[in-house]
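Thread title: Can someone regenerate the structure for this chain?

I was given the following input by a collaborator and told the matching structure tokens would be attached. They weren't. Posting the sequence so someone can regenerate them.
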Amino acid sequence: MKSFIKNPISYLTCFILFSLCSVAQQQLSSVTEFKAPSKPNLDTSMFGKWPALGPKAVISNDGRYVAYTINNPLSYESTLFIQSLDHSFQKQFAGANESFFFCTDSRRLIFQRGDSLMFVTFDGGRVNSIGNVESFQVPVANVGEWIAYRLKGDENKLVLLNLMSGKTNSISFVTDYFFDKGGNTLVVKCSKRSGQGSVDQIQWMNLKDRIFHQIWERKQLGNSSFQISKFIYDDSGKQCAFTFNDSQGVQICYFKKGMDSAVLKVHNGSPGINAKMLVYSLHSFSKNGKYLFFYLQEKEKVKERLPNITYAQVNIWSYNDIEIQPAQRNDLGNLNTFLSVVTCLDNNSQVLQLQDEDDAPAHHLNYITGDYVVMTNNHRGKLPYWWSNCEKPSTYCISLIDGKKRLICEGARFGYFSPLGKYFIYWNSDSLAFMCFNMNTKMLNNITQSIPDKLTEDYVKRLEPQPVSSVVAAWYENDKSLIVYGKYDIWKIDPEGKNKFINLTHGYGRKHKVMLRLINGDDGQGIPSVYSDKSSLLLTGVSDLTKDNGFFIADLDGSHDPTLLTMGRYVYYKDFSHLLSGGASIGMKPIKANNAACWIIRRESANEYPNYFVTRDFKTFTAITDLHPQKQYNWLTSELITWKMFDGETNQGTLYKPENFNPQKKYPIIFQFYETRAERLNDFITPYYSMAEIDIPWFLSNGYLVFTPDVRFDIAAKTGKPFGEYTYNSVVSAAEFLSKMPFINGDKMAIHGASFGGAQASYLVTHTNIFAAACEAAGFTDPVSGYLKLSAKGLYDKFASRESTGGYVVGRTRYGATLWERPDLYIKNSAVLNVDKATSPLLIMHCPLDDNVRMEDGIALYLAFRRLGKRCWMLEYDEGGHAVQGNDAVDYNTRLTQFYNHYLKEEPPPLWMTKGIPAKLKGIETGFELDPQGSCGLDCKICKYKHYAHIN
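Best answer:
Regenerated them for you:
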């Protein structure tokens, strides 16, 4: 679809010409077998240099104008584009920041460039500016009517401008300023010299009358000024609270519209504060504005007893310790904070400390509308939850009126309040249902037990079943019903459990295998939206069969099927619950004009660069931007492949081919895997150096095919099969299936995995001989020895308190049993214990700064290969972590490509593979030069016969 914008095209054209004229020397010295007839292959000189959409796009309230930025990596700045949808207006500004917005009347756009505040008027195309601007702010939820900006200079002058009327107010000596979210109030902190000291003030302005009213003043001697460490409003903008620090410690002041001045609300001597506690910081107002939440902190711990120098300095590890010794040492000096509350209705109210030593933070504190909070007692997350005999965390409600506690349940997960605070909804892993606790009657009900739909993930199984979405999707007005997701459909539930559930999508999702989700299900902070019975909802859907993404519209009565608006091989927008294992693109939530049926959407596909479009009906889309840098290169295509695994189950994966794919050729192929990857079928992959996993566009452009199969898992203790067997079932069956295709060379197949994928690759390389080469990066290789290791770099490292045990039992490995309960599963799954069966040459990448998987895992596998005389190389980067970056990534990408080129394309091995790099030459020689006369190993048939397809 042709774009109506010329400037972005010109911008891109200049970039492409620049890139093509500045091709740097490639890192690889080998000759690429695969030559594109009409387009050049990807070159490393263009990595990180493609222009990209900025993080923000806006549309005017009347739906006539749009604005967005394009980031130019060559100049390290963004260009702001402003345009009308009828083609009559367009401007661009280099160097603009991302804080741009339209005025409420849709007549102007405002942004900052350098220290200038810019005003672009659409009628006549005038551009005005205000210089010497240090900063500006606008209300978060009411953008476009008010702006406050502070000028540089000795007076620190703040100007408040009404963008509709043009009227201004100003005040000097401003050190900080705050709008409330809705744009009703502006609070300003002022500080100016007075004699031998200073006078600090806080001024309050109701934006309707635009008159500053002083609500707080403090005079002090010397050069010091009081510090506001936190300032907050309530949701209405009629109340505020702030903290200041002085010799008495942190103190909390409170002000409400109509009061003469702010009052000291909480200080260290307030009633209810334990003598061992100090006021620490503010948190928030409750949603209804009745309560003010803040934190107390333990007083600094002073050692009254000094260590006896004649005693041995010994750490005593006890089996009864909740935390092991390294974790305890890491916590030394850390002072716990405790959630507390005070009512806003009583000036002499008592402080209630809500949180005890063992309590985790309260559930969604900012959303509390009633007189209760809900807390969980789990030793602040220190309980070893992966122990089967461990007590389950207790969840209980606390009255904000008198502090009384009441137990709700044991082991609640994902708890949320209803909008009016009538109910607390949480997930129960035992009953696989959502439970509802009535905050008034204290009754507990299973409200989803009868729904004829699975509410849990049934594809990527976990030891503890998870709901499809861990949040309640939305609510109806007055808390009368809630909306939850099944795998495919959307359900209306009565929180009292009295009325029958309703399938709002009429079974369409399950019938067509389309996972339907609300687009405006929450406010972006996990807070569910509220709808009326008559609302029509815009939905996003993802096909479980084809991975197509699109939009639907549905009524909230569930009487008929949703109406399909568009569906295709794109990524428009996905809910996080669409993603099975993470990492896939979710696209962008459509951005609607406030007063018009007009939306900005972002669209991408495997061969279409992400671009902005505008739509009025979600059926037709008009391009706003036209970025297509991939068209200058031999790009890629993606294809969904379906096959039957060895166990008879059907599986899916994505086959990536180069754009100039020739079905008459035989291609080498690399299998890359982790968990689910087919959901990335339509993602655009921006090329870059391989950092742990391979960069797919790079390898495609260099003559390979790449296949990313889904790997389906179950709990090992339940099925008797550890994750390695599931990987074998998926990957090896896929390899056998694809090897029968006429364009795939079944003798030139390789596997590659990183992190958990590295663990899978380690298993495969020791359990099958069909792959010509393998690479594992930062994977764990021996669960038997790894089970009782501490995570991270060393015993006394700050991360070392993380025990590996829990990850093996309930993490991605899904053993579901301890080492002693099912040692057979751990032994069977150990790559180290099965190295004697390995035949494929292996490349390992593991780094000492990896705080996810200890480098000892990589070393153990390397030593096992070396001890048995099997071909193996390990890359260890001094600055690398769980992946590599910068120059290390350039190096890794080069060596990785040379490794695969030798075994899959029969190119000569490089010197680092044939002769190695002695420690004394580290950082001096790279060993990248190819060595046609050398040998990577006596059992290498390629080196033995010097049968190279190409010699550089």
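Confidence is low (pLDDT under 50) at residues 1-36, 793-801.
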